[in-house]
Design a protein that fits this description.
By secondary structure, the protein is an alpha+beta fold.
Length: 777
């Protein structure tokens, strides 16, 4: 068992209670589930999934002490790439929060104020000042094991009762971790440390435990692990013995490639079943034959589990290999595979194509397609890398490495540059190209029927030339053509040489057709939504008017779900009598109709406002306008006017969130009577409220997408936002850094918290208005 394996969600039995129910997230329930976890990442995932709602999850991390006494980042959620690179290893003697907690042997809390001031690299986006960060030392019997870091959605200080809950969860994690280390990954007489990150025996330390190895060997099984992110695969010594291969000296070794291991007749079946397992995750079982070196075959049963990360992507496979001739009676053996070239082999290749097609059919965007290729197609085909280039205005532009990200981005970028010429050559000829295991590497052959008819040799101008550490041992270049149109090229590389049979070439050509269709559909989808979003943005103000004595800032973010187009809008109006009008509204729905209705309402409200009607009368007229339109949609809206000379406010509200006044380091919602949404009851009048905005005070109006979170109560989200606004007012208010600069920073800060969410089901619009004081003029 590997303590660094990915977090899997709680089992069905453990998660029957809905997360949204009051009993789903209690400290005792969370502790009970923690005591059943089997990996460090699962401990972190359980705290985030089952702990209190005020543990945000974004920016949380699990550090374990390695054999060198350094804190290594073992599991995380919501950490940006730069944090992984810079804080992947933490020196316990440093001043970072994780080191301080371990050195002080007590929880180390950074309040919301300090996260915006003291947290490392605050300029890169982590120190938002909207959250608190606590680091909990994991210590059992005076023996330090690691540190758990959690981000907390607290306004102001963290109360003592919440600290008690956090310490309880930290203690539960520490004791469970100590148990796992004692019974899984620690040798008797050694210090309890977790060895992670090494590419050799350290990576499979869990397989080396004497008791576990003895039990596996006695049952006639060998253990294996495949890292789907790096492409590395490891077997223990018993796994080599099971397949009749000599075991490497010194412990676990690199596993052989599938095409070098599995009987050629069974390989398509294995690839098809593996593709299905990768697409769905969870346990799987494979039956295949391995040729003996001296003749005959060994019948192998492979049982394992595809492990998913917190985003549902496959990241690791672990399991056992068994020799069926040893562990089963003869009558329990699976039926022999079909004869070479028979219906069984053809059916297996068809099954593989069907599995890949199903995976690609679920892809909606180009990013989804590349993810499916990375997560399913690459490991199922036994490929080392896959590079996708798409045609853009007659040019081939790489897309895969810009989407994959992570540690392989540089490698894929260089590989794309290296293969540019060959990929363009294959696309121009509309002919797949396949490398051959010949002494002169880099020569590729292929035509429409898979026969060699020519070669394309690379050179120093960016084409593959067969030299250098990145040159693959074998590769295929597939032109992607859909409906007679050139879509792009696909380069598939392999770590070992291979000969592509006629059946292999047919399989890859068919895969190219499926991939081309998926990419063409995804590009049309992306184009449609880009245009829809641009349409909505075009209906919003391009810039806000500059008004004497006032500073303003606005933001709009489209939804990340559904049509990605909606009816949120804002406006800042110059009124004839010198006053200023603020408008914020939200039309029901996320489709083109909502956007069209939004445009009509915006124009109508602007006309009523500039005619001199007060906010209440303006909303009443706009409500009647909406009821007369040929639509069943309704809209919420807030309209207020401000007199810059004396600060008089007049406002009316139609089912919309109340505006927020930020003044004297306080943020409060204005008490504003509300009426029905626009279009619901066109005869209902709206109440007019009168208030005052003093110099130096700021108003925030927003749509509910700014604060709505499916995993948090709406009122709690509003209170958290108010707390963050108060922190902003105390630390970086307009008086300190200038009104315009301060409002722009605040707008970025508010939208940053939204963009860090896993999904954004609703549009977001906000408008900030600040009345300058005498010293700001």
């Amino acid at each position: 068992m590997d303590l660094t394996s990915p977090w899997l969600p709680p089992s069905e039995d453990e998660s029957r209670t809905p997360r949204s129910s009051p009993t789903a997230r209690t400290a005792m329930r969370c502790v009970r589930l923690l005591l059943g976890c089997t990996t460090a990442a699962e401990l972190l995932g359980t705290v985030l999934a089952e702990g209190p709602n005020w543990i945000t999850g974004e920016g949380s991390a699990f550090y374990l002490l390695d054999s060198a006494g350094m804190l290594r980042l073992t599991a995380s959620h919501g950490l940006p790439d730069w944090a992984h690179e810079r804080y992947g290893v933490v020196d316990p003697a440093s001043d970072l929060p994780a080191a301080m907690a371990l050195r002080l042997r007590r929880p180390y809390l950074l309040s919301p104020e300090r996260t915006s001031v003291d947290y490392p690299n605050r300029n890169t986006g982590m120190g938002t000042g909207m959250v608190a960060i606590i680091t909990l030392p994991l210590i059992v019997d005076e023996q330090p094991l690691g540190v758990l870091a959690l981000a907390l959605a607290h306004r102001g200080t963290v109360p003592r009762r919440d600290l008690d809950v956090l310490e309880t969860l930290g203690d539960a994690c520490a004791h469970r971790l100590a148990h796992l280390l004692d019974h899984v990954g620690a040798e008797p007489g050694t210090s309890r440390t977790v060895r992670v990150g090494a590419p050799d025996a350290d990576r499979t330390a869990g397989l080396a435990h004497p008791m576990l190895s003895l039990a596996v060997r006695s049952a006639g099984h060998g253990a294996f692990e495949r890292d789907l992110v790096t492409g590395e695969s490891y077997w223990d010594a018993q796994a080599y013995r099971v397949v009749g291969r000599p075991a490497p000296e010194g412990g676990p070794g690199t596993a052989p490639e599938l095409d070098r291991l599995v009987h050629p007749e069974d390989l398509p079946d294995v690839q098809a079943a593996l593709a299905e397992a990768l697409a769905t995750g969870g346990p799987y079982r494979l039956l295949y034959r391995v040729p003996r070196r001296g003749g005959g075959v060994i019948r192998i049963e492979e049982t394992g589990e595809v492990m998913l990360d917190v985003h549902g992507r496959p990241v690791r496979i672990a399991g056992l290999l068994a020799d069926l001739d040893r562990v089963r009676a003869p009558e329990e053996h699976p039926p022999p595979a079909a004869e070479p070239g028979g219906a069984g082999a053809a059916g297996a290749r068809s099954a593989l194509l069907l599995a890949l097609t199903r995976s690609l059919s679920r892809a909606v965007t180009v990013r989804d397609v590349t993810t499916a290729v990375t997560d399913v197609a690459r490991p199922a085909l036994g490929a080392a890398s896959i590079v996708l280039d798409l045609v853009d205005e007659g040019r081939l532009l790489p897309v895969s490495h810009t989407v994959y990200g992570g540690p392989r981005r540089t490698e894929l970028t260089r590989l794309a540059d290296l293969s540019e010429g060959v990929m363009q050559h294959a696309l121009t000829r509309s002919t797949p190209l396949f490398s051959e295991p010949r002494p002169a590497a880099g020569r590729v052959y292929g035509n429409a029927d898979g026969q060699a008819d020519g070669q394309a040799e690379g050179n120093a101008d960016g084409r593959a030339d067969g030299t250098g550490p990145l040159t693959p041992a074998a590769w295929a270049v597939l032109p992607l053509v859909a409906s007679g149109r050139q879509v792009g090229s696909c380069l598939i590389t392999f770590a070992t040489e291979r000969a592509f049979s006629r059946e292999d070439r047919t399989l890859y050509s068919a895969f190219a057709g499926i991939l081309a269709q998926s990419l063409e559909r995804a590009r049309l989808y992306d184009t449609h939504h880009h245009r829809a979003t641009e349409l909505q943005r075009a209906m919003l103000p391009r810039t806000l008017p500059r008004l004497p004595g006032l500073a303003s800032a606005a933001r709009y973010l489209p939804s990340t779900e559904g049509m990605q187009i909606g009816g949120d809008w804002y406006d800042l109006l110059r009124l004839p009598d010198g006053r200023v009008g603020l408008v914020i509204g939200d039309v029901q729905g996320h489709n083109a109709e909502a956007t069209a209705v939004m445009g009509q309402l915006r124009s109508g409200l602007r006309a009523y406002a500039t005619d001199g009607h007060d906010p209440a009368a303006t909303l009443a007229r706009t409500s009647r306008l909406l009821s007369e339109l040929d639509t069943e949609l309704f809209a919420t809206c807030l309209y207020l006017t401000l007199d810059p000379a004396d600060g008089t406010l007049q406002a009316a509200r139609a089912g919309h969130p109340a505006p927020v006044r930020i003044a004297d380091a306080k943020a409060v919602e204005l008490e504003l009577p509300g009426g029905p949404p626009l279009g619901v009851d066109p005869g209902e009048p709206y109440q007019l409220a009168v208030g005052h905005l003093a110099p130096g005070e700021t108003l925030l109006v927003y749509t509910d997408g700014l604060v709505e979170d499916r995993e948090e109560d709406y009122d709690e989200s509003v209170q958290r936002m108010l707390g963050g606004l108060e922190l902003w007012a105390r630390q970086t208010g307009p008086v300190r850094v200038g009104a315009v600069t301060a409002l722009e920073r605040l707008a970025d800060l508010l939208t940053l918290n939204v963009t860090e969410r896993r999904s954004r089901p609703d549009d977001v619009a906000l408008l900030l208005l600040h009345r300058m004081s005498a010293e700001q003029h």
